[in-house]
Design a protein that fits this description.
10 Kd Chaperonin, Protein Cpn10, Chain O, two-stranded antiparallel ribbon, about 0% helix, globular
Length: about 100
């Protein structure tokens, strides 16, 4: 799938989970108390926040980049079937706050 065509908004991050348990009916199962590893396939530009000290708007870029491997907690994000150029794949959409750790190569 050509992930370069996927452009998330704000601070949204799109992940491809390394392993998923899916029923024959298409239901995705999440094991409780298990961390998932995923590859970052698309990243939004970031978002504006208000600096409490200066009261000014500050732009915060997302702290992960495409190709990073991340660790997320069970049930983090929203899993959606995504179609790009006729190819369908289930991807996970979440905010940066849902990422537990980044594993850089």
């Amino acid at each position: 799938m050509d992930y370069s065509k996927l452009k998330p908004l704000h601070g949204i991050i799109v992940l491809k989970l390394e392993s998923q348990t899916v029923s024959t009916g298409g239901i995705h199962f999440v094991e409780e108390k298990r961390l998932d590893y995923a590859e970052v396939v698309a990243v939004g530009p970031g978002e504006w926040n208000r600096d409490e000290k200066t009261k000014k708007a500050v732009f915060k870029e997302v702290g992960v980049k495409v190709g990073d491997t991340v660790v997320i907690g069970p049930g983090s994000g929203v899993m959606l079937e995504t179609e790009i150029d006729g190819e369908k794949e289930t991807l996970t959409y979440l905010s940066e706050m849902d990422i537990v750790a980044v594993i850089r190569k």
